[in-house]
Every structure is written in C-alpha cells, then in structure tokens.
Design brief:
The chain is of the alpha+beta class and about 280 residues long. Helices cover about 30% and strands about 30% of the residues. It is built from ten helices and ten strands. Strands 1, 2, 3, 4, 5, 6, 7, 8, 9 and 10 form a ten-stranded mixed β-sheet that branches. Helix 2 (about 100-115) packs across helix 3 and helix 7 crosses helix 8.
Length: about 280
C-alpha cells in the first residue's frame, strides 16, 4: 500500500479580473500550500477496476474527483490496471481549502507511479485541468502566484508562517459564487510586485458574507485576535499568528458552531518528498 498526503491551500489574496467567454473567470491569486490535509492509501490491482472507500460515506460515489482522476489517467494512457483507494478525509468540504482538488492531484501522481506510466509532472498538470482549475497547483507541488483560471502558475518562496484556519458550519458552492450576479468581477490586473505591496483581499468575501452571515460572524470573532480573511470561495477563514502557541490560545476559544486547525505554510508540498521516498518512483 502506498500512503500519500493531499495537502490544503490558502488563497492569501484572490482578485477576479473578469469573466471569460467560456464562463470561467480570469483571476490573480496567491496560493499558499499548507503542511496538513487529507491522506490517501493506494493498493494496486491487476484488473482495471477503481474502488474508493472513505471515512465519509457520502464521498464514495463515482463523482468523487479521486475516481475521476483515475479514470482520466486510464483513458489518457490506455492503462488497463486498477487500484483500491482509501481516502481519509480530514479537510472540511466546501471550505475553499482545495481538498477535493488536492485529493485528485495526489491520485494522479500516485497512480502514475504505481502504474509506471512515466508521465512528467507537467504532463500531469496539463491533464489535471480537466478535473478542475486548482488541481495543477497540487500536481506541481509549489506555492505559487496564479493567473488565468488559476492554472498559469509561477512558483514563489513565501515566509513559512503559522495559520489558524476556522470553518463555520456552512457549505459554500464554488459554482454558485462564480455564477452569482453580485460577484466582484472588475478588479484591475496588476503586476506581482504591485500585488505584494497592496493590501490583500478576497473578491469573493463580500458576497459570501452576504449570502452566509455565519461567515461574517466568524470573521468578526477572529479579527479580534488577528487580521483575517476568507480563502477561496469559503467558507473557511484564516489568520496569521507569530507562533503555534499563540494560534492554540485562540483555537481554544473557538465558537461552538466552528471547527478549526493550525497549519504551517510550506513552499513545497510534503507530497513531493513522500513520492521521492517511495520505491514506485525508482
């Protein structure tokens, strides 16, 4: 069995430049990878069947991105091998933390190694766009500045800070946010240097606060301890702290209707080191 992490991400800022003709949106965002996330376990099969077990039974259907990633790789390469996959889901669903996309990316990288397909990470990243705009980030495995739909990635070295991530008890539909008429879509396109020197914000946050007041309430609670904002299309919000102890003190006061965890920002995904250590890549 091959066991690998599927790490979370934060959008340190998220600007929406405009809507494209295909219905997607052009963005400018800064992706910070984290050192925590889901975990997946892969046991190769000799037939072409793909199975998925999960600690959340609602995620075990054929629409899970893990199964879709495996099928996509089979179709793209003609591979006739299969795999039994166990997903240990730890990240909240609908939190804007990239959990589903990260699960898909880990699956592509794992099966590429197990099935000895020898696709490069760049080939996998290009293929992964068929699964979602965030998936290439997790395939390439580096914190990055992103443009386009989030697929044009420039790796960056960020200070590896400590974050408290808090998720209120609600589920945000990414599709619903991006289809909403009140979404901000006219942020000016700026250079990376200008963005780094401007106040950071998330263009999705005002709309989500309006549609889900519990997100606004959670931000009002968290801002009492540190500057905070939302990641992705929510519902998770985050704040930076000087050290783990400071973050733990705030986590201890978590509102009853929220869940939270502490994570460190990382520039390279732990998935890359885990893959390098496995015999399947040799």
């Amino acid at each position: 069995m091959l066991s690998l992490p599927a790490v979370a991400k934060l959008n340190l800022f998220l600007h929406i430049i405009g809507r494209r003709a295909d219905g997607y949106h052009n963005l400018q965002t800064l992706f910070q990878l984290l050192d925590v996330g889901d975990e997946l376990h892969f046991s190769p099969r000799q037939d072409n069947q793909l199975t998925l077990q999960c600690n959340d039974a609602s995620l075990q259907g054929p629409d899970n991105l893990v199964i879709k990633a495996g099928r996509l790789l089979q179709q793209h390469t003609g591979c006739q091998r299969g795999c039994d996959i166990i997903l240990d889901k730890k990240l909240p669903m609908g939190g804007g933390l990239g959990g589903g996309s990260s699960d898909a990316a880990t699956t592509l990288l794992a099966l590429n190694a197990l099935w000895q397909l020898k696709l490069t990470n760049q080939q996998l990243a290009t293929l992964s766009l068929q699964l979602g705009a965030d998936v290439p980030l997790f395939v390439t495995g580096y914190s990055a500045f992103a443009e386009g739909v989030g697929d044009k990635l420039v790796p960056v070295n960020l200070p590896e800070k400590t974050y408290l991530i808090v998720t209120p008890a609600c589920h945000i539909s990414t599709a619903a946010i991006f289809q909403h008429p009140d979404l901000i879509r006219n942020s000016p396109q700026l250079s990376l240097a200008s963005l780094f020197n401007s106040p950071w914000r998330n263009d999705c946050q005002p709309l989500v606060e309006q549609l889900q007041p519990i997100v606004a309430i959670t931000l009002q609670w968290l801002v009492e301890y540190a500057p905070c904002r939302m990641t992705g299309t929510g519902a998770s919000v985050f704040a930076e702290f000087p050290d783990t102890t400071s973050a733990q003190n705030v986590l201890a006061n978590l509102p009853a209707n929220c869940r939270g965890f502490i994570a460190k920002g990382v520039n390279q995904s732990p998935l890359m080191a885990a893959l390098a250590d496995t015999e399947f890549t040799n």
